[in-house]
Structure formats: structure tokens, C-alpha cells
Amino acid sequence: MHTRTWILGALTAWAFLLPATSPAQFVANDARLLASGCFQCHGTNGKSGAFDALAGDGKQDMLNKLNDMRKKSAGSSIMVPHARGYTSQQLDMIADYFSKQK
Question: N- to C-terminal Cα distance for the chain?
């Protein structure tokens, strides 16, 4: 019994040593991770890529374009499979991320 009490106490103490991460930080990191799939063509953080910059574009405008791309035929644009590869929630997170980049 003494050993179990010691282990439980040690685990509890260890948990307090872990860095605290708020849910908002997870969402911000998730959005950046999702948006990183765009960096190859649109530049890091949506700036200075080979194609259109996305940084600072309006969220709703970007969402409308992405949703329109999802409806096009598969071979019509390189963006079609990219837009189809994300859920609506993920596209919302990506558009929100880029809209907040300066």
C-alpha cells in the first residue's frame, strides 16, 4: 500500500511540473500546422511565395474561394485536391490563420 501511495504522489507532483498549455494555444498551433501545407507555394506564413500571397486576406473571402475549389473537377487546378483534403473546420482554421498574418 505504501508503494502505491508513493507512486500516486510522485505522478501528481510530476503533473504540476509540466508546462501549462491553454486550449487557445493548441488551436493556434493546429491552425499554423494546417496552414504549413500552403507554405510551399504561398510562402512561409502566406508571404512571398511563388503564387499569390495569402497573408492578410479576408477570412470569408478565402473560405469562399476554397469552398468553390472543392466543387471544381479534379484536374482543373492544383488547388482542387488541396481544398478537398481538408474538412470545413480545418479550412476555417487555415483561412483564419492567414487572415491574421500581417
Answer: 58
